[in-house]
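FAQ: What does the model actually see?

It sees only this:
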Amino acid sequence: MNRKGFLERLNSGDAILVAEGYMWEFDRRGYLQRGSNAPEVVLEHPDLVKAMHREFVHAGSDVVLAFTYCAHREKLKSINKEDKVEKLNRQALQIAKEVAEETGALLAGGICHTRVYDPQDPVAVEKCHNMFKEMIEWAVDAGVDYITGETFDILDEALLALECIQKYGKGVPAVITFAPYCPDETIDGVPIPEACRRLEEAGAAVVGINCARGPRTMIPLLREIRKSCKGPIAALPVPFRCKDDCKTFYSLKDEETGDFLYPRNLESNRCNAKDIIEFAKQTKEIGVQYVGLCCGNTAGYMRDLAETLGRKPPASRYSMDMSRSSIQGNEADAVNPLARKTRLFMFGGSDYRAK
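And it is asked to produce this:
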């Protein structure tokens, strides 16, 4: 199947839509343990991983991202499955490759933060280097179009990841993104726009931010990144209603109890379709070329994102059309003698009609 390559799409100015959020969704469905975050589902239920890849492409994702997030050696060692690290990575890549080939989507490999990196400890740096190296080499063996390095919060570790992709990736482009906490800087004290610029200058094809912040609180930082960087930038927020006094989904609180909502109770603060649509419009205005959603993502959100950016994915066949409703639709009163009364009951006395 003929298709534009990753760099070709970027160079032509095309937006690339990317579905992330596999970890969160598999936890929600009962196939992944939050806390360990290890993607054991790849080995235990490969059919479900393949199905989720298909769901996201059906909804508009241009990319099948292999589910290797937190699949590095140190993470699997923490759950006594270090001996499965190569098998899990290669299987995740193969599953993603099969879906990419059948749909014509791009194939991406992925590495992420390690939580063992320490720039003052040469042994820790070498450990991270070796974990990145093997995962990159497995991704290259699978024939990926590019490799993501995501959710970094230390610039030095992100630079190490980029260096390893350049050294062991055999020319495969790199997308490197930071998790934007509060304030707008990395854990090692570098303003995120400057950190993105330094990664761009070091050779990353795309730089930007993913996870941690919701659409509303990510936009101002994206504007600053756009000013600092010349090339393509990335934006993949979490679909939760973060706000100025709670910029990350970690810091959101229950309005009734004051308790932190993260990690178990965030569902009460989910974005709605209108939030995602507005986010998509603003990314287009800013000039974000690599756009998607992270933890909390669903196929429905991806379709909203894709349609707002002018796409019509296969899932658009089933996009909502309430004009056809037998209660609120254009012909509802003609075909249903109780339509108006039902509306009054449903909407608390208001004669709400579909718009």
